[in-house]
UniProtKB/TrEMBL annotation:
Domain called N-acetyltransferase: residue spans: 1-160
Pfam family name, one: Acetyltransf_1
Highest taxon of source: Bacteria
Protein name listed in UniProt: L-amino acid N-acyltransferase YncA
Gene3D superfamilies attached to this UniProt entry: 3.40.630.30
Taxonomic source organism: Virgibacillus subterraneus
Length: 172
């Protein structure tokens, strides 16, 4: 598995991972009406824009196919004092999950946050998403909860935080 910084040419592949991962991960969590509306072309445009302001990292399998991605940057809400960095997204095709790729994708985001002078990081996870166990296994501590509405349905999400980001980076 190769982890590298994404380029603009990767946007359609990142969009495919994004849409397909949402559809598999959030089935029975997020309303089907929302999942059905997800669109590769729209997500491709979104990721082209995102890459101009945030670093995006991709995981390539041995055939050079993008099977996952991650991105992060400055914390966006200011809800948890002292948390200055945020993991915005990490998605992996369902068949590649549970193979250590998530940890590999999280590492460069954390390293970049540290290089930018950030000392802490948080991530938001839907409460019913099994990925919360991934973040807990990596030392993420529950910071609190919030409510999110998607297609008229109220969902609970949990913030997980790492108060010592440089330690997380060193431990890999």
């Amino acid at each position: 598995m190769k982890i590298r910084k994404a380029t603009q040419q990767d946007a359609p592949h990142i969009a495919k991972v994004h849409v397909d991962s949402w559809r598999s991960t959030y089935r029975n969590i997020v309303p089907d009406t929302y999942l059905e509306k997800l669109d590769y072309d729209h997500r491709t445009k979104l990721w082209k824009r995102n890459m101009t302001s945030n670093s995006v990292f991709v995981a390539e399998n041995n055939d050079g196919e993008i099977v996952g991605f991650s991105t992060g940057g400055k914390e966006r809400e200011g809800k948890y004092e002292g948390y200055d960095g945020e993991l915005y997204a990490i998605y992996i095709f369902e068949e590649y999950q549970g193979k250590g790729i998530g940890r590999l994708l999280l590492q460069p985001v954390a390293e970049e946050l540290v290089q930018a002078g950030m000392t802490t990081m948080l991530v938001w996870v839907l409460e019913d998403n099994g990925a919360k166990y991934f973040y807990e296994a990596l030392g993420g501590k529950k910071l609190g909860h919030a409510e999110l509405e998607i297609d008229g349905e109220k969902l609970k999400e949990t913030a997980y935080g790492w108060p010592y980001l440089s330690q997380f980076v060193k431990e890999g």
